[in-house]
């Protein structure tokens, strides 16, 4: 089907992990997917697979968001997936640059994209904002304040939309995943693959596809059905700090 015969879904952070899996599954579900990420070459590969469109996007850069927005004429679904963690240390040793990076990507990134796309989502007559927060948006855990703080702020921005948009044709869904094996921990630990692998040792984490599946479910309910919040964790994880390892 030609791009303009299908509803358009915009996915940020689409070059890998949950974003890439979501783009693929939305493509299979009949959406024309616009994939945005800094690593646009990776997005291009996925876009070719699913008949979508790949565009460069740095959610921390207002000019990049503006150019991205101008290149996408219409949208029915926005998946705010770009984000992540940097570092894992006590507040007493917090690194300000890491905190700033987490605020920029998770909070201001979601703000920039949502602000830019709201008019198009509304114009579609059945718009939908899906924001991927985390179980870190629901609780705190030791050494995680920079990330849990940013995720709480991102979640509050997202949840506030629910009331502000009441009466307008836009649904609002928050997805709160626990441990998902993606590049998440490698980014958190600055490329330390060994330390990242340890995070998922001795338990079965969620896959990016598990989360994508949930996003597609939420996005394919009838227009009057709003799934407000979905929390998904591996069976082996009770909370941000309680995990069962074999
Ligand atoms: C990440 C959640 O449980 O891996 O967003 O810290 S967890």
What can you see in these coordinates?
- With 246 residues, the chain is of the alpha/beta class.
- The chain has a single domain, classed as NAD(P)-binding Rossmann-like Domain (Rossmann fold, 3-Layer(aba) Sandwich), CATH 3.40.50.
- Helix content is 43%, strand content 15%.
- The protein contains eight helices and seven strands.
- Strands 3-2-1-4-5-6-7 form a seven-stranded parallel sheet, with helices on both faces.
- Helix 1 (17-28) links the parallel strand 1 (8-12) and strand 2.
- Helix 1 (17-28) packs across helix 8 (208-219).
- The protein is globular.
- The structure holds 2-hydroxyethylsulfonic acid.
- 2-hydroxyethylsulfonic acid is lined by residues 134-136, 178-179, 240.
CATH architecture type: 3-Layer(aba) Sandwich
Structural class: alpha/beta
Helix content: 40-55%
The largest pleated sheet is described as:
7 strands, parallel
User: Number of helix segments?
Assistant: 8
Indicate the overall shape: globular
Query: Major sheet: order of its strands?
Result: 3-2-1-4-5-6-7
- How large a portion of the residues is in β-strands, by DSSP E? 15-25%
Tell me the domain tally: 1
SSE string = EHEHEHEHEHEHHHE
CATH homologous superfamily name?
NAD(P)-binding Rossmann-like Domain
* Rg, Cα atoms, Å: 17 Å
Say which molecules are bound, naming each kind only once: 2-hydroxyethylsulfonic acid
Low-confidence stretches: none
Average pLDDT over all residues: 97
Summary keywords:
246 residues; Rossmann fold; 8 helices; binds 2-hydroxyethylsulfonic acid
Q: What is the topology?
A:
Layout: E1 8-12, H1 17-28, E2 32-37, H2 40-50, E3 53-56, H3 62-71, E4 77-80, H4 96-123, E5 127-132, H5 145-164, E6 170-177, H6 184-188, H7 193-199, H8 208-219, E7 229-232
Parallel strand pairs: 1-2, 1-4, 2-3, 4-5, 5-6, 6-7
This protein binds 2-hydroxyethylsulfonic acid.
């Amino acid at each position: 089907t030609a791009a303009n015969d299908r509803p358009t879904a915009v996915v940020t952070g689409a070059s890998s992990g949950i974003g890439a899996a979501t783009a693929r599954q939305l493509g299979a579900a009949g959406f024309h997917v616009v994939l945005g990420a800094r690593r646009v070459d990776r997005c291009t590969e996925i876009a070719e697979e699913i008949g979508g469109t790949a565009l460069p996007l740095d959610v921390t850069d207002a000019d990049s968001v503006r150019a991205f927005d101008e290149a996408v004429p219409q949208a029915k679904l926005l998946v705010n997936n770009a984000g992540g963690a940097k570092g894992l240390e006590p507040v007493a040793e917090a690194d300000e640059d890491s905190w700033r990076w987490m605020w920029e990507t998770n909070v201001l990134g979601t703000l920039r994209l949502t602000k830019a796309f709201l008019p198009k989502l509304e114009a579609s007559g059945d718009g939908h904002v899906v924001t991927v927060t985390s179980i870190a948006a629901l609780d705190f855990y030791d050494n995680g304040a920079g990330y849990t703080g940013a995720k709480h702020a991102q979640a509050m921005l997202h949840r506030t939309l629910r009331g502000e948009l009441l009466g307008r044709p836009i649904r609002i869904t928050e997805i709160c995943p626990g441990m998902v094996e993606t590049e998440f921990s490698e980014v958190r630990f600055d490329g330390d693959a060994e330390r990242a692998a340890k995070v998922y040792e001795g338990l079965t984490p969620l896959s990016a596809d598990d989360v994508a599946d949930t996003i597609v479910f939420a996005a394919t309910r009838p227009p009057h059905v709003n799934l407000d919040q979905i929390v998904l964790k591996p069976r082996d994880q009770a909370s941000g700090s309680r995990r069962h390892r074999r």
